[in-house]
Amino acid sequence: MTDPLRPAQDAPLIRTAALTKKYPRVTALDQLTMTVDRGVIGLVGANGAGKSTLIKILLGLVEPTSGTAEVLGLDAATQGPDLRRLVGYMPEHECLPPDVSATEYVVHLARMSGLPPTAARERTADTLRHVGLYEERYRPIGGYSTGMRQRVKLAQALVHDPRLVFLDEPTNGLDPVGRDEMLALIRRVGADFGISVLVASHLLGELERTCDHVVIIDGGRLLRSSAIGAYTGRTEVLAVEVTDEPDGLVALLDQAGLSARRAGKLVEVRLNGHDEAYDTVRDAVARLGVGLVRLEQQRHRIEEVFTDGTP
Amino acid sequence: MSTITVERTSRWFGNVVAVNDVSMTIAPGVTGLLGPNGAGKSTLIHMMAGFLSPSAGSVTLDGERVWHNEDVYRRIGLVPERESMYDFLTGGQFVLANAQLHGLPDAGAAAGRALATVEMDFAADRRIETYSKGMRQRVKMAAALVHDPAVLLLDEPFNGMDPRQRLQLMALIRRMGDEGRTVLFSSHILEEVEQVASHIEVVVAGRHAASGDFRAIRRLMIDRPHVFLLRSSDDRRLAAALIADPSTASVELDARERALRVHAVDFPRFVVRLPLLAAEHGLRLYEVHPSDESLESVFSYLVAS
Amino acid sequence: MAPRDTGVIHDIGYRNYDGARLGRSYLVRSLFVQSLRGAYGLGRPARSKVMPALLLAAITFPALIIVVVTMVTGSQELPLAYTDYVPYTFYIVAVFLAAQAPQLISHDLRFRTVPLYFSRPINAADYVIAKYGALAAALFALMAMPLLVMYVGAMLTELPFWAQTRGVAKGLTGAVLFAVLLAGLGAVIASATPRRGFGVAAIIAVIMVSYTVVSAVQGISVETDHVKVATLADLFSPFNLANAVQLWIFDIEVNPLFDEVPTADGGQGLLFVAMYLACVAGSVAFLLMRYRKASAR
């Protein structure tokens, strides 16, 4: 058997085989089989059972009804404590006591992950800085904004330098600006810190911007598990937005033999593999003398998995 | 067809000003009410629904004052954010009770219609405590729709929903708008606003910060340069051509994106000159992307200013 | 020192951690120490330190008086046996337990910090051991303080060394008996409610009501000459039970809680010990069940 603290580098990040979890009233997971490699992984699940159950199973806290789950090459059902040494977890709900400071609390949790006192102190200071908490770290958490609390929650999940961190709805309750900052932080955790991330979110657009790979569970079953590129590939449709006369543009493009139509404020042009179409559009806009605000190949969206199942 | 008019309205609670001198008009169709947490969205919606009186100014529906006006209440449906529902009732009983409270002549038929509208008739006989979040939201909506109001107000309707529930509700809200109702929903999640409503009202710290299509709002901010991401057959030559034109302030070759990043200070001139310059130099434009015209950027500009 | 014309930029970016990751005994110890400190308000805001400090002062004050009186009168004996001290001051112990058990136990439940522990290498048993242990240790420290003050005072007045040392050892053993049983009770009640106020009220209520009822029963029994009933009534109040076990183990004749209630004889003593152990085991079992469930949620 491999040393549990130094998992084989070639082991996949997460591997499940026929993973099933039944509760008296619902089947949370149904024959889930998937393999996911290192990186930033998005997890989309229906509300309630599926998503949280999967995370708890992967943390070795809930025993599956049948099937197996492996994280970093460790069996979640039998090697839970070893596994939890190497992963971090940021819950969806509030989980911070108001009467202690971020520093006190994160140092304590660092020790609870096995870091000796000195390392716990030093890594807490560094980690709080990396998540963007500065002077406020010495004040009681009760006075923090939602954004700051989310940062503390993230810091406690990272303080012991895990190989993988589970983030459950990390942007919940954040304002648009806070959301952007949190997503940027998650990308940094994946890219600069070299820590794999499993981020559960309901907001598909956020996952499109953040993840390398997305796993979708629907009704307890695996709906899809693919690299992000497979969800958001380019389409053969060019979206064009002009400041004026979109109908005039459609007419001109029609004359030039391109198939174009209006879709709200946009004009959609079919490319059909002909790059010359780009020049035709450019020249048509120039001829009309209107402004060209947008010209880009449309992309598929994760959402389409739910609407027609064939992105 | 109904229109809500908010005129110079403020609402304060003690010394806390939740809504500060706001004027806006909500017309038929779907409107998104956008703002950070605590911006006053809920207070505004509650005043529109007649749950709260304005401290100053007026809120009217088709010219009639909303506050303390039963006639107007009959034309408004409110879907509150709070989850407080009667868990021991079935969805059908809950909607029926609302129909009876409105004193509708045929409450049973009205409840049935409302449940069918939100596609919840299949679960009408199940107790509310067995419902998922999305189902609860739809039953609340049925209760608000039971008297067939012309105006539907929804406070943070998407909170905590999973993607499938979200898509379903979005379709429902769009349909309500297409039917000619005046639909207003609040949110602080831009993604969902962008997908449902093209017309947005932005409130920030109780003030009415902007109104309209977010792209149009962005173009009104002439004090901020517009950032475009361009890809062409020869980015370096395109860069040279663009920097020679007074409409651009700076051009940067973004190595990571492998694209040109252009700061345009004169938006109308820049967008007209761009295709002309490209054609003149024989450059093929593969992509023109206004990178700060997303709702995110517009919103962060509004909040920051 | 670096030469003047050179510079250096240090990398203060994210660093990986290759150092030691200590085992479960370290985790349990850390949680124990942190909880014990928390019980006395250390590492928490100043106002959290007020209550434990006041109670510690209140329970120690009579011990100081005893020492002073002994010194002044030149007596060859302390006016109070070490084993009687805790029964005489049990109100203070009860208030401390009611105030601090919810702080130690309910706090994690109320602020939902429990999942942060169970996403780490410790399991429910480790958590229960550390928390129960910390609460028992905090109670013990509270009761041991005045006993040690008395002992140090006795040594300074040069009372007989061996008699005093035996006495304090008995007193401290008794304190352990009280601490372990009461900590179990407090932890069970506190873990059943995330609300601090409920926890405080419930603990006070259980201790006071059971003590009052048992005292009343004993009063009536002594009046009506049913002394055996009076002795056995001690089974039904935690303070009386711990006290009864202490009296039996050290074969003390006079019951400090109620001097007319005779100390248990051999068979009764075993019954008391069995009840005591059952209560402690029951508390641990309840806590384990409670936190096994919490860790899977």
Feature tags:
heterotrimer; B: 305 residues; alpha/beta; 11 helices; 14 strands; elongated; C: mainly alpha
Percent strand of chain B equals 25-35%
**Residue fraction in strands of chain C:** under 5%
Overall geometry of chain C comes to globular
Summarize the helix and strand pattern of chain C as letters. Answer: HHHHHHHHHHH
Query: Helix amount of chain B, in percent?
Result: 25-40%
The major beta sheet of chain C can be summarized as:
none
Structural class of chain B: alpha/beta
Number of helices of chain B: 11
The residue-averaged pLDDT of chain C reads 91
Q: Largest sheet of chain B, if any? A: 6 strands, mixed
What is the tally of beta strands of chain C? 0
Backbone CA Rg of chain B: 24 Å
Reading side by side through the largest sheet of chain B, how are the strands ordered?
Answer: 6-7-8-3-9-10
Structural summary, described in words:
The complex is a heterotrimer of chains A (311), B (305) and C (297). By secondary structure, chain A is of the alpha/beta class. Chain A has helices at residues 49-58, 80-85, 102-112, 117-130, 146-158, 176-191, 204-210, 228-231, 246-255, 276-288, 304-307; strands spanning 14-22, 27-36, 40-45, 66-71, 74-75, 87-90, 164-168, 196-200, 213-218, 221-227, 234-242, 260-263, 266-270, 292-299. Helices cover 35% and strands 28% of the residues of chain A. By secondary structure, chain B is of the alpha/beta class. Chain B is elongated, with a radius of gyration of 24 Å. In chain C, helix 4 (90-110) runs parallel beside helix 7 (161-192) and helix 6 packs across helix 11 (266-295). Chain C starts with 23 loop residues before the first helix and ends with a helix. Classes of the chains: A alpha/beta (311), B alpha/beta (305), C mainly alpha (297). Chains in contact: A-B, A-C. At the A-B interface, helix 6, helix 7, helix 10 and strand 14 of A face helix 6, helix 10, strand 14 and helix 11 of B.
